[in-house]
Every structure is written in structure tokens, then in C-alpha cells.
Design brief:
The protein is α+β, with helices and mostly antiparallel strands. The protein contains 2 helices and 6 strands; from the N terminus they run βββαβββα. Helix content is 16%, strand content 33%.
Length: 128
């Protein structure tokens, strides 16, 4: 039997909601018309919980809270095997200094980087 090396991407992904139950979306490229849920790749030997906390800490103006782990999703992505650790976080405060983010009603989500995937994640983690 031969071993095959599979590219693996481990990701911490967050559904961040405010007091009005809106969901935060971000743009990694300000020239792109597509939005993402906040998150990032988990660095080797780093726990996904620590990465999720770091993502929240980078959102200036928001009170840092402990993200709540919800579930892991595994699928074959464009760049190999993806393991996505999904978290939810209810936030207080006002996001400041970041023109590359927006709060969206769950009834009116923006065009996202992965089509309907983000919407399905939001529905699962918000119950709506």
C-alpha cells in the first residue's frame, strides 16, 4: 500500500452575533465583492480554541468573550481536506476602525465567498 500526502487545512470559523441578532461578515480583500465569516487557518500546534479567541481579539471595539465551540465540519475543499472548527460568539460593543466588515440580518445575508455554505453555517449556529 502506498501512502498519499493530503493537503490539510484546519480552520477556526466564527458566527459572531450582536445584541440585535445580526451576524458579522468580513472581507479579506477590500476590492472583492464577496464576504466571509470571521476566521482563519489554525497554525500547526495551536489549538482551534486559541485561534478563535485570537480572531475575536482582532475585532477592535468589541468586548472579548469566550467563543463557544459548536461542531467540526470535514470536507474536500479546493485546496485539499478541510477541517473547520465552528464557534459562535455573542458580542457586545461597536466594531470600530474596520471598513471591511458589516453586520447583516440573518434574513439578508451578503454574497459570500463560498455561495450557500456560509448561510448554512449561520442557520445551523443561530437556529434561524
Amino acid at each position: 500500500m502506498t501512502e498519499e500526502t493530503v493537503a490539510t487545512q484546519v480552520i477556526a470559523n466564527l458566527v459572531v452575533t450582536d445584541r440585535a441578532s445580526r451576524v458579522l461578515f468580513v472581507r479579506h480583500d477590500p476590492d472583492s465583492g464577496k464576504w466571509w465569516l470571521p476566521g482563519r487557518d489554525v497554525e500547526p500546534y495551536t489549538h482551534p480554541d486559541d485561534t478563535a479567541r485570537a480572531v475575536l481579539a482582532d475585532l477592535a471595539g468589541l468586548e472579548t468573550c469566550v467563543p463557544e465551540f459548536d461542531h467540526v465540519e470535514s470536507f474536500c475543499g479546493r485546496r485539499g481536506w478541510h477541517l473547520v472548527f465552528h464557534y459562535r460568539a455573542g458580542i457586545k460593543g461597536t466594531l470600530i476602525g474596520d471598513a471591511h466588515s458589516q453586520w447583516c440580518s440573518t434574513d439578508d445575508l451578503p454574497v459570500t465567498a463560498h455561495g450557500g455554505w456560509e448561510k448554512a453555517v449561520v442557520e445551523k449556529l443561530t437556529g434561524g
